[in-house]
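Students often ask why inverse folding is considered easier than folding. One informal answer: many sequences map to the same fold, so there is more than one right answer. In these notes we will look at a single instance of the problem. The structure comes first.
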């Protein structure tokens, strides 16, 4: 591995950890995250916007790493470090 590849791989791993930690923190907020309770008798509930499931992505990438570490490394570099194919 060249020095540039090692640096980019380390950056992709760091970005992955940051994104996963933020997703876990967001998922762990309980009981409204400090918000006050409001009665729901006259409130219309809107469906939440779909967000990418980062934790599922992390789990899938972990399984992929067990099968083919090289290809999983390429996925990490493309998704978390923004590398392009060329």
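Output (designed amino acids):
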């Amino acid at each position: 591995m060249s020095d540039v590849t090692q640096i980019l791989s380390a950056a992709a791993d760091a970005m992955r950890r940051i994104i996963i930690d933020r997703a876990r923190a967001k998922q762990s907020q309980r009981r409204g995250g400090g918000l006050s309770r409001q009665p729901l008798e006259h409130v219309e509930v809107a469906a939440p916007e779909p967000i990418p499931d980062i934790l599922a992505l992390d789990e899938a990438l972990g399984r992929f790493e067990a099968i083919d570490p090289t290809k999983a490394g390429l996925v990490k570099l493309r998704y978390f470090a923004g590398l392009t194919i060329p």
